[in-house]
Amino acid sequence: MKFINENAWKYLSVKLPILGAFLMLVLIPALQWAVDFKVIPVEYHAYVTGGLMVVLSYIGKKLYQPSLHQIQSFAAVPSTDDNLKNLFSNFRKILGGSLTQAQVSKINDLLAGFKGEKSVSQNGINLLSSFEGCELAAYLCPAKVWTIGFGTTVYPSGVKVKKGDTCTPDQAKQFKAHDLKRFEKTVNDLVKVPLTQNQFDALVSLTYNIGTGAFEKSTLLKKLNVSDYQGAADQFTVWNKGGGKVLQGLVSRRAKERELFLK
User: What pLDDT, on the 0 to 100 scale, is given for residue 36?
Assistant: First the structure.
């Protein structure tokens, strides 16, 4: 199913100019002539204007109905790859060219809103970024993969980070926000109870660090999904080891995540 099909575009591209021309060249001049020559008594001006607004509202509804129906239909079906491809293709048509990353992000946020999904707040991004070192020049990570910013290996555009790449601090945060989409989806999909924004941010930060598989199997998630919020909060401190040893950096990180979860 397409977001807005070709027939809808053709329909609107023909009907809207016709409506505009009718208003500008016929209806408005005719009304002005009627007023000037007092064809319509003054006491009836308000009734005529009100009636005109009703008629125009009806015409507008009929003209836009195809596209609104397409939007509602799209929102009601699963977000398959074909649907998303059609969606972004139509947004490119609307905007007359390729989409910027900021525009792609806004579209993704719109889709998340349709689904009732949460996304990490700027406060959450700032917290997570404080746990990760930020490198503004590309470097080889221990796995021999070119990395930049807060651990980004592939830019939002799909291009891999390469030797010699640089970025600004703000760009690094934008890359991180994009990387977080996968972990946001994990939390949205696995948590079955209501969450505040702070709780969601803390869980995404944890999942980003321990991995989606570990979060899915965690006691924290089991407690949370039976509405044991305090028990879930206490489980943050369990994840404080690296290589089998307690690491002070992880102890500090879990404490801050737990504090945010309970705020």
Answer: 67
Q: Which pTM was predicted?
A: 0.52
In this predicted model, which residue has the larger pLDDT, 72 or 131? 131
Mark whether 141 is an active-site residue. yes
For the stretch 113-122, contacts whose Cβ atoms lie closer than 8 Å and that sit 24 or more positions apart, written own/partner, are: 114/75, 115/79, 117/184, 117/185, 117/188, 118/184, 118/187, 118/188, 118/195, 118/197, 118/200, 119/181, 119/184, 120/177, 120/180, 120/184, 120/200, 120/201, 120/204, 121/197, 121/201
DSSP for 140-155, written as a single string: E-TTS-EEEETTBSB-
Distance, in Å, from the CA atom of 229 to the CA atom of 235, rounded to the nearest integer, reads: 10
State the catalytic residue, choosing from 117, 132, 135, 259.
Answer: 132
Residue 167 annotated as catalytic: no
Give the DSSP letter of residue 209.
H
Of the listed 117, 135, 141, 259, which one is catalytic? 141
Strands (E), 205-260: 241-242, 245-246
**Cα-atom radius of gyration of the chain, to the nearest Å?**
27
Helices (H), 180-211: 181-190, 197-210
